[in-house]
Amino acid sequence: MGERPGEEAAPTATVQTHGETDSTLDAAAHGVIPGPEHSLTGRQASIDIVRALGVLAVVFYHYSYRFPPDYLHGGTHVEAFAYGRLGVNLFFIISAFCISGSLDRSRSAVQFFAKRVARLYPAYVFCVLVTFAAVAAFGLPGREVSTAVLLGNLVWVNMVLPLRHVDGAYWTLLVELRFYAVIGLLYFALRRDYDRVTLFWRVLTLVGIALYFVAKASAGTPAAGVLRPVAANLFLHPFAGYFLLGITLFRWERVTARGRATDVALFVAGVLCSDYGVGDKIVCLCFFPLTYGLLRTQGLRVPRVVLSVGLVSYPLYLLHQNIGLVVMRTTWPAIDPFVLRALLAFGVVLLGAFAVNYRIEPPLRRPFERALVRAGDAVTRRLTGAPPPVPKREADRARGEDAA
Predict the structure, then answer these.
(1) What is the C-alpha separation between 5 and 275, in angstroms, rounded?
(2) Which phi-psi region, left, alpha or beta, contains residue 106 (left: φ > 0; alpha: ψ -120 to 50)?
């Protein structure tokens, strides 16, 4: 890896996109860092590289560009990091990639939605509480919220109504939840026919682009004020194309050449038909070769620290902004160089992310998921009139009696 003489090389893991096992993917998905004797292989490592790139880009953006230097007591304002906000778009691509596999492994719509909520909600609640407490204790001008807003955030009112987020970075969760809802309902309503699901998503992406065009052509009119929210909220513009690209990357070998070309073209059209500046559009267009290359590259040696950041990218994203700002502001002037305060802030939120990923979430996730599945199945049986499931012991006993 070209380390300097006398310098110990960083631990690395080899990324291969073929031959991965379900156990490897499951271990990585649940936050297990492999030891030297069993390096992480398979798509999961590539996924975590993309996640790490996305979350680090957003952190650089918020710490080095988003806020005026005087707000952070002498912070920097690096123009190049302005593009870091586009890291969330990488999340949308990789999210669709991962959700495509999750749908295939879910026995029902209830189980799929339960798994998604159980993956997001426990960590989200903890991070919301910690963020609110930090801002309330140390202050963060312009970013404090009331207890009523906190309570609304805890039960996801902010995801369905125009309620302020405890941390402004949470807006991406709203986009993710809409994607989960639409793709999950489509997949099971269309009887797991991914070709029809993809076709529907192509239409959804195209309609969003068309609505954007009409809204832009009618700028300043009441129609534009209606069409833009419709394109964004119902058709997920401009993010539908990123989700479509993620779906196609997951099914690349099973999609025809014409289908792949169509999906990439719709992704490009969605990027170009947006309010992004020229530089932003160039960066976003580069996300296709980047994700395609990483997800299909074999034998790539990756520092384990990168994989670790990718594994904790979700709680790191939830914690990094407001808590990082609090650390950078409250440690001044005791720590004057801004770079040191930024590094300290990143270290604090990274430790918090590891704590959430390895200590807070694991004991809660599985019981919460099982409870959601039971509740969802009960509601489904009530609506459909289906009989309750036979307990496993009784079913086994019945089979034994029949065999006798």
Answers:
(1) 48
(2) beta
pLDDT for 389 equals 64
pLDDT digits (tens, 9 = 90+) for 366-379: 999 999 999 988 88
Burial of 385 (0-12, 13-18, 19+ CB in 10 A): exposed
Q: Tell me how far apart the alpha carbons of residues 93 and 264 are, in angstroms, rounded to a whole number.
A: 12
User: Could you tell me where the DSSP H helices lie in 190-312?
Assistant: 194-217, 222-233, 240-250, 257-272, 278-285, 287-295, 304-311
The token duo for 136 is: 């309330």
β-pair type (12-15, 300-303)? antiparallel
- Sign of the Cα pseudo-torsion (307, 309, 314, 317, in order): negative
- Other CB atoms within a 10 A radius of the CB of residue 173 amount to 18
- The residue among 75, 33, 83, 87 whose CA lies nearest residue 303 is 33
Encode pLDDT of 156-174 as tens digits.
999 999 999 999 999 999 9
- With beta carbons less than 8 A apart as the criterion, state whether 9 and 3 touch: yes
What span, in angstroms and rounded, lies between the C-alpha atoms of 198 and 185? 13
Which amino acid type is present at position 165?
A: H
184 vs 205: CA distance, rounded Å? 17
Contact present, 319 and 353 (Cβ < 8 Å): yes
Entry pTM: 0.86
Fill in the DSSP letter of residue 335.
Answer: S
Q: State residue 369's pLDDT score.
A: 92
Can you tell me the mean pLDDT for 113-120? Answer: 95
Query: What pLDDT sits at residue 28?
Result: 38
Say whether pLDDT at 41 is over 50. Answer: no
Helix (H, G, I), strand (E, B) or coil at 257: helix
**pLDDT of the residue at 43:** 63
The count of residues in the chain is 404
